[in-house]
Design the sequence.
């Protein structure tokens, strides 16, 4: 099966900022505060891939993959599409590591997308000493290295989300484990809440190059994140 060069996010304005959509063979990070549409953007990207008979391996760490939201986004294609989106639900950070390190056994020529939503949730919940924290950091780095290797080897897009925390001045946010995530992710998208159901997508990095003022306005609707008119 011939894979596309990019995966559509379903939002034409965001795809345009990304030079066609999500790039294969690299990791893409989406981060933002609660209710900014991170999971919605992931779901609609997986649905767009599935419409072209391309499969997704979806690691649902936050238990945010709900049948109701999936049906809203997939619409009339929900039954057909659901059979080619494979969902994993780890309960501990150790289980997350095991799933990621065994993903290759599930990869076929039709798999085009790997999702981890959110890669830092269980990492953050682990209660640990300083020594154990170093071990967690190594494990997270190993997960990202493994995902990057799979992306290159099998020509996949890997889409990650991350929890966030406020900076010291409380004026902005950054992803948990920012240094590690930014090291591995070639494209970085920040989602921001605007008034009402409107959101702003800011492309902070594209194909490992920092960007300036790449942004578009979206609206969170029943069918997903759509272009704001």
Sequence:
């Amino acid at each position: 099966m011939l894979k596309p060069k990019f995966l559509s996010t379903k939002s034409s304005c965001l795809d345009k900022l990304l030079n066609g959509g999500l790039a294969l063979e690299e990791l893409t990070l989406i981060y933002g505060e609660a209710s900014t549409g991170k999971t919605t953007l992931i779901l609609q990207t997986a649905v767009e891939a599935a419409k072209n008979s391309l499969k997704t391996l979806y690691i649902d760490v936050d238990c945010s993959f709900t049948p109701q939201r999936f049906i809203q986004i997939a619409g009339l294609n929900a039954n057909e599409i659901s059979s080619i989106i494979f969902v994993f639900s780890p309960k501990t950070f150790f289980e997350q590591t095991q799933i990621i390190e065994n993903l290759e056994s599930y990869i076929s020529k039709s798999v085009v997308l790997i999702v981890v939503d959110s890669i830092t949730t269980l990492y953050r919940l682990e209660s640990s000493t300083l020594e154990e924290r170093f071990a967690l950091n190594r494990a997270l780095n190993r997960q990202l290295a493994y995902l990057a290797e799979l992306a290159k080897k099998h020509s996949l897009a890997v889409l990650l989300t991350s929890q966030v925390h406020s900076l010291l001045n409380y004026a902005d946010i950054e992803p948990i484990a920012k240094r590690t995530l930014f090291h591995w992710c070639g494209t970085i998208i920040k989602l921001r809440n605007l008034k009402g159901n409107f959101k702003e997508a800011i492309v902070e990095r594209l194909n490992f190059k920092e960007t300036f003022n790449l942004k578009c306005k979206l609206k969170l609707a029943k069918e997903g994140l759509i272009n704001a008119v």
Remarks:
- The chain has a mean pLDDT of 92.
- Helices lie at 12-17, 38-50, 67-74, 78-82, 93-101, 121-125, 130-154, 178-184.
- The domain at 6-227 is CATH 3.40.50.300 (Rossmann fold).
